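Form 7-S
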Amino acid sequence: MGAIFGRRSSPAPAPTAAEEKAKEAQERQEERAETQEKTEMQAAQQRRRTRRQGGMRLLFSPLRREGPGAGGKPPGMSEAEYLALLRKRRGGTQTTTGSAPQKLG
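Output:
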């Protein structure tokens, strides 16, 4: 109705520096939220993929050694740990030489 009497409406005021900063901050937040959502989705996909393929990876793992050719201690295990593991598997707690404990080294 302002045009009836010949007055024109004034243009919208220019945004202030604070409004511009707030707008830029909001845009950055939205961008961060989008990237975070994307990485979360990728992580979920990776977990599903790992669950799906995990059994096959373990089945054909070089660390899994079974059969007649698989002997000796696993790499990274000390001799004492390996002997303790063998005793535990066999169900015995006796030492290999008499009743005195032996220091392996």
